[in-house]
Amino acid sequence: MPRRNKVVVTQVAIVLALVLIWELGVRLGLIDAFFFAAPSTLVGRIRNWTSTADFWGDVGMTLVETIPSFVVGIAIGTALGIWLGLSPFAADVVQRFTMFNAIPRILLGPISVIWFGLGLTSSVALGVTLVLFVAFFNTFQGVREVNPVVLASTRLLRDSKSSLLRHVYLPSANTWILSSLRVSVGMAVMGAVVAEYLCSSAGLGHLIAQAEGVLDATGVFAGIIVLSAFVVALDALVDRAEKRLLVWRPAPLHEA
């Protein structure tokens, strides 16, 4: 059996074993069903949700908030990373302010609501702040990692700045930028869900908040499972896009 198939089979076996232990624990009374509903109960709740139009409206709302957060955050972060990577003076000036990156940006959620009000704009604004820094630092590092020999050779040929950017800097940063996409999509979803949890009347975050408000642990766990599946689906799409764009990159040795 190929290594990849063995990995998948092992992963599935681990998940099934954990679910089985959980189900048996609840049925035997070893686990309190009020706090940890049985997996079969969670499946039933999710089945009920998926049969309603409101649920799919919540999924659509979260998707509508995630996509602009992801696209705008990547665009702004990549542009800033290229600019600072090509400008040592500007990078030195801004370097002192990178300490603010340590501040948990989830705390900006209430501020975003105050500034932009309730609705789509505040959710997108929060998502952009989460995605932006991931894209920025990866792009900045990628530009700084340009091979100095290649850079010196192209400068000897008196290439213009635009030519250097197009043929040297961007190809060097390309892998770094694309590698940040998978992290960024998770950050975009996080921003959308947190904003929904705080103030929205729709979305997966709102669905979880409603369940929490009535101490419905089953609803909370079911919402988390749905949200996890949502993120995994988006991650799979980004992973496929990354592999298409980086088709030239050699496979790792353990996959060869």
From TrEMBL:
Short name of any one Pfam family annotated for the protein: BPD_transp_1
Localization of this protein: Cell membrane
GO (cellular component) term, any one: plasma membrane
Chain segments annotated as transmembrane: 12-38, 67-86, 107-137, 220-238
InterPro entries in the cross-refs: MetI-like, MetI-like_sf
CDD domains listed in its UniProt record: TM_PBP2 (cd06261)
Domain ABC transmembrane type-1 intervals: 59-238
Superkingdom, taxonomy of origin: Bacteria
Lipid bilayer topology: Multi-pass membrane protein
Gene Ontology terms describing biological process: transmembrane transport
Annotated keywords: Cell membrane, Membrane, Transmembrane, Transmembrane helix, Transport
Family in the record: Belongs to the binding-protein-dependent transport system permease family.
Protein name, entry field: ABC transporter permease
Organism field: Bradyrhizobium valentinum
